[in-house]
Amino acid sequence: MVIYLNTYFYIIMFIMSMLMFVYLYNQILLNLICLEFLMLSLLMLLSNLMMLNNSMIMVLFYLVFVVCESVLGLSMLIILIRSYGNDSFKLLNLSKW
User: Has UniProt tagged this entry with the keyword Membrane (predicted)?
Assistant: First the structure.
């Protein structure tokens, strides 16, 4: 019973993080924070489901993927701030790329 309640909680976390990801689309840093919260909720959901199967190696692969994604996002944010001086999407003209 407790496993199902935790699963519902993680699904609510996932939905709330998706809503915040869509709502905060104009700031890159807040968008990255929402994306990390999304990955955290998926990690908890995955680890909760993998405990039932006794195969925790998939959680390790997922953690490697999450770390690589976060490093890539932060490096893109640093490059953007160094070249344009702000992390707002409104100032960035994507048609030049």
Answer: yes
Residue 90: CB partners within 8 Å, gap ≥ 6? 26
| The model's pTM | 0.73
Q: pLDDT 10s per residue in the chain (97 long)?
A: 556 777 888 888 889 989 988 887 777 778 888 888 888 888 888 888 787 777 778 888 888 888 888 898 888 888 877 777 766 666 555 555 5
Domain that includes residue 52, residue range: 1-89
The domain that holds 28 is classified in CATH as 1.10.287.3510
CB 81 within 8 Å of CB 71: no
**Residue 27 phi, psi (nearest 5):** -115, 125
